Amino acid sequence: MTDRKSRILIAEDDVNLGFLLVNFLQDNGYEVKLYNDGLSAFNAFITYKYDFCILDIMLPEMDGFELAESIRKKDKEIPLIFLSARSMKEDKIRGFKTGIDDYITKPFDEEELLCRIEAILTRIDKKTGKNGNEVYHIGKYRFDPINLLLVIDSKLQRLTIKESRILCLLCMSRNELVKRDDIMNDVWGESDYYIGRSLDVFISKIRNYLKNDPSLRIKTIPTLGYILETKATKA
Question: DSSP character for 157?
Fold first, then answer.
């Protein structure tokens, strides 16, 4: 996993339970945001960057099933857990058909919940290469995120942590648009005008690092984001 703390969205209308979950997960190193209805949770999901969602089923405005379906339409990979007092087999089956990763019934053990979260995140990280162990070949370059190295021929360029993370995000979605807000939220944990100006500087630096291979290009899509254009494949 990256050095950035994983960000968890919780949709739970029981305020007391919600705050207990927030405190417990924050104590275990996560960034957590709590929303008390499904609509607010969905609006937050499409606005900010999250790595994991924990959803109650019985939510006002938009119930957990509808919320999970809406999230899945936007992101087919983000881990989802239902945390619900409803223990009917039909609810569990419906949840898994919606695309959730786990279903935990209340009351529950906090340590068990933590273990399930960590197991799912570890599996996702291994699948996507977010653990930093994946090496990318982009054009004539070899990019090693875990060692912060960009290599062409025998020339080595040591990257900063932020430079490496930005390039990693571009590599994971190469030839596809990566949104500015997604990069800022992932690398800085938030997005605003001043962070946007910093991102522009980092992109310029990365472009300069890649200049020795004219087949590579970081294309700017004004106001939206960037595309790393390359036909390269991963190692």
Answer: E
pLDDT greater than 70 at residue 92: yes
Give the bridge partners for 53, in sequence order.
Answer: 9, 80
pLDDT in tens, 166-216: 999 999 888 889 999 989 988 888 888 899 999 999 999 999 999 999 999
Cis preceding linkage at 107, omega within 30: yes
**CA-only gyration radius of the chain, Å:** 20
Shared domain check, 17 and 115: yes
SS3 letters across 43-68:
HHHHHCCCCEEEECCCCCCCCHHHHH
The verdict on 113 and 148 lying in the same domain is: no
- Residue span of the structural domain in which 116 resides: 7-128
Q: What does the pLDDT read at residue 4? A: 53
105 and 22 belong to one structural domain: yes
Q: Are residues 77 and 141 in the same domain?
A: no
Residue 125, pLDDT above cutoff 70? no
**What's the pTM value of the predicted model, to 2 decimals?**
0.55
C-alpha 151/C-alpha 47 separation (Å) is 36
Across 102-177, the runs of DSSP E, i.e. the strands, are: 102-105, 136-138, 141-144, 149-152, 155-158
Convert the pLDDT of each residue in 50-61 to its tens digit.
Answer: 889 999 999 999
160 and 85 in one domain?
Answer: no
Other C-beta atoms lying within 10 Å of the C-beta of residue 130: 19
Q: Which residues pair with 158 in a beta bridge?
A: 149
Q: What is the DSSP pairing of strand 80-84 with strand 102-105?
A: parallel
Structural domains counted in the chain = 2
Domain ends where: 77, 101, 128? 128
